[in-house]
Amino acid sequence: MIKFKAHFAIVIAFVSLVGCTHYGAISSPPPGKTASVDSQNDRATISRGVALAIECSGCKVGESFSDDSTIASVLPASVDALSEGATSGSRISDPTFVLVGENVGTTRVRIAVLNQPDIDLQVTVLDD
Fold it and tell me: Of 37, 43, 56, 97, which shows the fewest CB atoms inside 10 Å?
């Protein structure tokens, strides 16, 4: 039993060290526009002129950048969530950034992740 507990503690410590990275959109595009994130394939599609808030657990705050900011830019964000009927927000604790579709094209956005390889998000900006 003691040997089992020791192995279990090592596994828990390893999982805590490595972390778990999940990311996804926490906002919606305006009507008639596109904004989506496919975290399974590390891809995002966004309309020109649209900003999309993305929450990322396990990501380093503010350490994301675009290979070509004339196509898509990425900025750190601070957001509050309001539930229906609420008069004040509750702070979202996971790192959040905003992806902005600047001009039509494709580029890569790199998201720094704690204790793991960076996420290379392929971003396609559409003119719709």
Answer: 43
| pLDDT, tens digit, 9 for 90 and up, residues 84-103 | 544 555 555 667 889 999 99
Q: Which residue has the tokens 């750190």?
A: 76
51 CA to centre of own chain: 13
Assigned token pair, 43: 């891809």
- Of 33, 37, 47, nearest to 103 (Cα)? 47
Give whole-number Cα distances, 45 to 18, 30, 48, 105, 111, in Å.
Answer: 29, 14, 10, 10, 16
What does the mean pLDDT of the chain come to? 78
Residue type, 94: D
Would you place residue 62 in the very low, low, confident or very high pLDDT band (cuts 50, 70, 90)? low
Question: Which domains occur in the chain, in start order?
Answer: 21-126 (2.60.40)
DSSP string, 19-61: ---EEEE-S-PPTT--EEEETTTTEEEEETT-EEEEEEETEEE
Q: Cα separation of 91 and 81, whole Å? A: 6
